[in-house]
Write a structure and sequence with these properties.
Number of helices: 24
Structural class: mainly alpha
Helix content: 55-70%
Strand content: 5-15%
Radius of gyration: 25 Å
Order of helices and strands: HHHHHHHHHHHHHHHHHHHHHEHEHEHEE
Number of domains: 2
Strand order of the largest sheet: 2-1-3-5-4
Largest sheet: 5 strands, mixed
Length: about 500
């Protein structure tokens, strides 16, 4: 690669990083996003192999080393996943360059780097998904090397990365299914040529070593990962199709990541960049979707061109094979962080089809149009964040809440609703006495409310996930002759009353 080409690729990566960083500091930290990093607040000796039956502690192991050097926070939590996203774009460029061609590599890298869902979900890695792309694309690059050079090391390393992907999140198996189906159908002869006992043994051992923590977990708890997540879906088929559509066209996070509720204090453009963002939003008439679906459908005609048939078909089959188990599994495929596991194979199909157009100017104009559409949607997310703030799951009120709780010096702080504990624990670096009441034990609840120094944190009524929890606490207090005493209401940047901080005291006679 020439120096000029390296500079152009670096510019694409810088564009992605700058765009993703817009969503790093402004929104609060979501509970699932914080959960993965919570494991890093403990020592190497106490961290588990698995955080859930399907979620490994691979990412937590990384954050142990990071949080030993820097304090947990939005930037230290999210900057690494943004950099992983940049690495994934670089790997995608190399993969296309070595298999489809240089023109396809530029097109694919540009489309992935500007895609709104990829940009935002790499910044707020609540899936988590960031490691997924690096492990997947890294394995594919190594398999291409194995195919061309016969390197046993490349084969072993590729399947080791696939094993790590399984440990990171067991639903990585969906991707393995999609890749396997696409490879068997598109490259049967190449696959058969490498189908030897020796290669099978190397691949099997390597993937087991990579997924060893998952294997150990399921040995100690026989097949718990499979048993806990094997239910076939009763979810409406139409809902999953809609989520597939809305994630692919970039619309899925409006009203989920950004707030649709009007705020008391609408945000105004305070910097030149925010003023430019507002101007772009108004000029483009507030776009909420891009043209990826249309481009993908048109790209399917690449099946009729000999030069693009195989990569186009591979991208289609990889997407279909990855999405099918989501469609059939209960609780899967109904959120953007599941659907994005299909990425970046739709861009492989589009890039391969555009690259074979003999008129370079047409493919260049089409690529720039698609990228501009992506960036316009991403800008709309940013301007919505400035104007109306994040939705409750990413409320920025969590930052003043954590600072206020530090000043209380309470020996016990009880969290009364979902979506608060993990984030506060992360921001406080596991130094504050957060607890969760035992909702199944009425005697324990009465004891908790009778502690005059204990503090309680809940969402305000309009944002409560489980309002019955606060009602149970108030009933326990009333039965013991205690009443609620407000300490402070915590507001978000847009003036929404988001959190209640309170205590209980004995009702004076």
């Amino acid at each position: 690669m020439t120096l000029r080409a390296r500079g152009a690729l670096a510019a694409i990566l810088v564009l992605f990083i700058i765009t993703a960083m817009l969503f790093v500091s402004r929104p609060g930290i979501e509970a699932d996003e914080a959960l993965v990093a919570n494991g890093a607040l403990y020592s190497w000796h106490s961290i588990p192999l698995m955080l859930m039956s399907y979620l490994g502690a691979l990412k937590s192991w990384f954050y142990i080393a990071l949080f030993a050097v820097v304090r947990p926070g939005a930037v230290s939590l999210r900057l690494p996943t943004v950099l992983l996203g940049a690495a994934a774009i670089w790997m995608f460029f190399l993969l296309l360059d070595r298999t489809v061609g240089r023109r396809a590599a530029w097109i694919g890298a540009l489309l992935l780097a500007t895609d709104s869902m990829f940009v935002i979900l790499e910044a707020i890695d609540y899936g988590p998904n960031a490691l997924h792309f690096v492990l997947k694309l890294g394995a594919m690059l190594l398999l291409v090397r194995f195919h061309r050079e016969g390197s046993t090391f490349a084969l072993a390393a590729a399947f080791f990365l696939l094993g790590l992907g399984m440990w990171d999140k067991a639903i990585f198996a969906w991707v393995l299914l999609g890749l396997t189906m696409a490879t068997v159908i598109v490259f049967p002869r190449d696959l058969w040529r490498h189908f030897t006992i020796r290669n099978l043994a190397v691949a099997a051992v390597s993937i087991i070593v990579g997924a060893l923590p998952l294997v150990i977990y399921n040995t100690a708890r026989p097949f718990d990962t499979f048993k806990a997540n094997r239910n076939m879906t009763n979810d409406p088929f139409a809902h999953k199709v809609v989520l597939l559509e809305r994630t692919t066209n970039g619309a899925a996070l409006f009203g989920f990541f950004t707030s649709l509720q009007p705020s008391p204090h609408t945000g105004e453009a305070a910097t030149w960049f925010q003023k430019a963002s507002q101007a772009v939003s108004e000029t483009t008439h507030h776009p909420t979707s891009n043209f990826t679906i249309e481009a993908f459908c048109i790209a399917c005609f690449g099946l009729f061109a000999r030069a693009s048939r195989k990569p186009v078909l591979f991208g289609i089959l990889a997407c279909a094979g990855t999405w099918t188990p989501m469609l059939l599994t209960a609780g899967a495929g109904g959120a953007a962080h599941h659907v994005i596991l299909l990425w970046p194979f739709q861009f492989l199909t589009i890039a391969a089809a555009l690259a074979v157009i003999p008129w370079k100017r047409i493919s260049a104009v089409a690529t720039l149009f698609l990228c501009a559409s992506n960036l316009a949607v991403t800008n709309e997310y940013y301007w919505e964040m400035v104007r109306n703030g994040p939705d409750i799951r990413w409320t920025d009120a969590v930052y003043p809440l954590e600072r206020r709780l530090e000043t209380l010096h309470s020996p016990n702080i009880y969290i009364v609703d979902w979506g608060i504990f993990e984030t506060l624990n992360l921001l406080s670096d596991n130094t504050m006495p957060f607890n969760a009441p035992d909702w199944s034990n009425s005697q324990s609840l009465r004891k908790v409310v009778s502690d005059p120094r204990a503090a309680f944190v809940a969402h305000t009524a309009v944002y409560a996930y489980f309002p019955q929890q606060r009602a149970m606490l108030e009933d326990a207090a009333a039965s013991e002759g205690y009443e609620e005493v407000p300490i402070e209401i915590i507001y978000d940047r847009n003036g929404r009353a988001t959190f209640d901080v309170f205590r209980f005291r004995k009702i004076p006679l």
